[in-house]
Amino acid sequence: MSRTAGDFPTKPLAKDGLDLGTLGSSAVLLAILVALVGYAKVQQRRSGAELALTNAP
């Protein structure tokens, strides 16, 4: 399963892929990774701010 999913972005359109090539596929995966890390960081800051507000005297 994972091997097929990994080949999907690089496969030609004729073979039901995205035809991004290895560089394009890597760029898309990097963008997704950066977005997810950024989202997690924002969520972490929000939960920290909420804790600070609830623990205030």
- Tell me what portion of residues adopts beta-strand conformation: under 5%
Cα separation of the termini: 53 Å
Multimerization state: single chain
Question: How can the largest sheet be summarized?
Answer: none
Helix-residue proportion: over 70%
Structural account:
The protein is 70% helix and 0% strand. It is mostly helical and 57 residues long. The chain has one domain. It is rod-shaped and about 65 Å long. The mean pLDDT is 85.
Structure described in brief:
The chain has 57 residues and is mostly helical. The protein has 2 helices and no strands.
Q: What does the secondary structure layout of this molecule look like, with pairings?
A:
Layout: H1 2-7, H2 21-54
Key attributes of the depicted protein:
2 helices, 70% helix, 57 residues, single chain, rod-shaped, mainly alpha
